[in-house]
Amino acid sequence: MSLQSDINSLVKSVDLELYDTTVVNENDETIYRVSVISTEIKDGKRAGVSLDSCVELTHLISPLLDVTPPVSGDYRLEVGTPGIERKLTNIGNFSKSIGEKVSLLLNDKEKIRGILTKVEGSKIFVDVEQEISEVEFNDIVKAKTYFEW
15-19 contacts: CB < 8 A, separation 24 or more? Predict the structure, then answer.
């Protein structure tokens, strides 16, 4: 099994869903970031993830990384949620963000903002003021969820 699938199994064991894993460098420090989301849907939206769940998951993942380090050299493990406003970098991110407000920048510089309604294969469907826009994933240059304060 791969490190990603092992981490995914641990995340599922605490009733959460793996959103993404990334390696980032911040302030001369390497961080292995594991982002998780709730599997529970409340009133059409995903429930939050508690700090206790993140701590529990950190204690589960840490020994695994001692045996199979995600990067060479020193790094810090960080387990948390991807946040209310986050980048959408792959089809899986889109699938896990259905029902949320998204902002897309396309190859032709067109901008689309609306509610992500569904993902079918490589097609993304966004409700823009009661009209559905169908976008091919490969036509997206940049995408993120957003929150109106």
Answer: 15/39, 15/40, 16/49, 16/53, 16/57, 17/96, 19/81, 19/82, 19/93, 19/96
Domain ranges of the chain: 3-80, 91-145
Q: What is the pLDDT of residues 99-118, one digit of tens each?
A: 999 999 999 999 999 999 99
Architecture label for domain 91-145: Roll (2.30)
Task: Please give the CATH number for the structural domain made up of 3-80.
Answer: 3.30.300.70
| pLDDT tens digits, one per residue of 14-41 | 999 999 999 999 999 999 999 999 999 8
What would you report as the CA-atom Rg of the chain, rounded to the nearest whole angstrom? Answer: 17
